[in-house]
Design brief:
Largest sheet: 5 strands, parallel
Distance between the termini: 16 Å
Radius of gyration: 19 Å
Strand order of the largest sheet: 3-2-1-4-5
Number of helices: 11
Shape: globular
Length: 269
């Protein structure tokens, strides 16, 4: 119920539901965690600090790891968004990752996805040694986002051998997890993400978390660097750099999912 209320952007109602869970189960780590996160998003620092104190009582090491993730997220939310392809991107082991966008009901690409592709194409032409990864797998009329994205890039001069396809993901969290698996398999290190300005901070947060997860799983430090170039879907770049409460909520919601706190318990999607 609380997860549904978060999806509906009903933060006070969700907080009340988490509090009911804690009344029934005072040592429920995830309930304390989510109550704290959304209290922070809602501007209630006192409730957030209380939740962190309870979390440290239950598992100090795990809580400190989450605090590091929160600090990284706050830094990412201050990231400068690039509307032009950055200069001096890595010349080896570098991938340009273009994130998908839901297809129209007739199975064709909608404007935001085409605009992302145009930005990705500019990045690819400026960096001919970089691989491209297209990610998005929700099928419509026999097409996936990744399939049509690859076809578009090839029709605009990109060699098929440069393009890697991730066509199973259904949202940003899966974009990041499944694409990171491809980066690992192909020996690609650094990443330039391409998406809408309104989506970039969330994408950077989740891709960073996915990369950290793979590093932890494989007991290594990939030292992966992320850069960005955006399709500007705001009236101005100044407005694009203003992080709203709704955006903050969605960033933290997906961060929690990426760390393994499923949106719906026992449901992976």
């Amino acid at each position: 119920m609380a997860s549904t209320q978060i999806i509906q952007k009903k933060i006070p109602e969700a907080l009340a539901t988490y509090q009911q869970i804690l009344n029934l189960d005072p040592d429920n780590y995830n309930a304390h965690l989510l109550y704290g996160v959304y209290s922070k998003v809602n501007g209630d620092e006192k409730a957030y600090k209380t939740a962190i104190a309870n979390l440290k009582r239950l598992d100090a090491h795990k809580t400190n790891e989450y605090l590091e993730k929160f600090a990284t997220t706050e830094t990412i939310m201050k990231t400068t968004l690039n509307t032009e392809v950055p200069d001096n991107l890595p010349q080896s082991k570098h991938a340009i990752v273009i994130l998908g966008y839901a297809l129209a009901d007739d199975g064709t690409m909608r404007e935001p996805l085409i605009e992302r592709l145009k930005v990705g194409l500019a990045a690819a032409n400026k960096n001919p040694n970089s691989k491209l990864i297209v990610t998005g797998g929700v099928p419509k009329q026999g097409n996936t986002e990744a399939k049509l994205m690859k076809e578009w890039l090839m029709s605009n001069g990109i060699a098929e051998g440069r393009i890697l396809t991730e066509d199973k993901s259904t949202d940003t969290v899966e974009n990041a997890l499944f694409t990171t698996a491809i980066l690992e398999k192909e020996g690609l290190k650094d990443v330039t993400l391409v998406t809408n300005a309104s989506h970039m901070r969330r994408a950077l947060t989740i891709f960073t978390e996915a990369s950290d997860f793979y590093d932890k799983m494989k007991a290594k430090n990939s030292d992966r660097a992320f850069t960005n170039v955006v399709y500007l879907d705001y009236p101005s770049i100044e407005e694009a750099h203003n992080v709203t409460k709704d955006e903050t909520m969605v960033i933290y919601r997906d961060l929690m999912r990426a760390t393994g706190v499923w949106q719906y318990p026992d449901k992976q999607r």
